[in-house]
Amino acid sequence: MRIKDLEIFLDLLKTKSPTQSAERFSISQPNVSMVIKRLEKLAGFTLFERIGKKLIPTSRALFLGGMWLEVVQSYYASLKSLESASLQEFVGELNCVATPTISEHFLPKILFGFAKTYEGVKLNLKTLSVQECFESIKNGKADLALLEGEISPQYAKSQKLSIEMFYTDSLVVASNDFILASRARNLESLLDKDWVLRECDLPQCQQFLNAVAERGVEIPILLELSSMEAIKELVLHQGALSVFPQIAIKEELENKSLFAIPIKNLALEQHFYALKRENQPHNEILVKLEESILDWSKL
Q1: Element (H, E) at 168
Q2: In whole angstroms, how far apart are CA 192 and each of 195, 221, 241?
Q3: CB-based contacts of 54, cutoff 8 Å, min separation 6
Q4: pTM of the prediction?
């Protein structure tokens, strides 16, 4: 006896229609007939009387239906209990460190979903600079470090760290002026604008300034701020220009409150990396978190 056979039988008690039950279970009508024959052979008596296109359950079928409903319900209840028991095995604590863009715009949704699934796991997240993230993972204060920027695999290996790139983002120059963003611009044509950048020791700012410096261009920075949200407000409402990781202004780009200005001959990518210690003991909770991060990064 198969659970699916019982489910089809119980559905037939309600629909009295092989066609409807076949559609619900995405099978053919002949398959429904085969299920009935198997159950009738097992029971040793007729379960349905065919009247036209309908199957009318016999009194014995109705009697069995009550018992088999309990069997099906018990089966799914047992599966749920097994799943709950499996999740309860994940009990512990994870310490994560991440650079600002990741901790502010990438990681919170992932950690929220993970915490809802694995309620027995305590998650701790600290926002640190690239160097501080390196130090935290090296000295064992963190189980996982998530960094933005460019990190050499050779350097990571020299520090006895394993490294994996898990996401690629773009750096974009953004404005609230859709006309300004309507066509590709030479960077030089934007130097008369009010530029507000995030602290220039952060990876995305360094990467942008280094790239434009290679072209012999110097950005006239009006203001440096530590808060991405404060910069976003100035771009939104004061007409300033700034450079953002695309993930940080995804919502604004989608609702067209901000616009990415295409810059001629300047395409910048930013990579996100996950770092662990090479000799780190296997941790199934950490494996699950890494899987969650990878799954989300592919969306």
Answers
A1: strand 161-175
A2: 9, 10, 10
A3: 16, 17
A4: 0.66
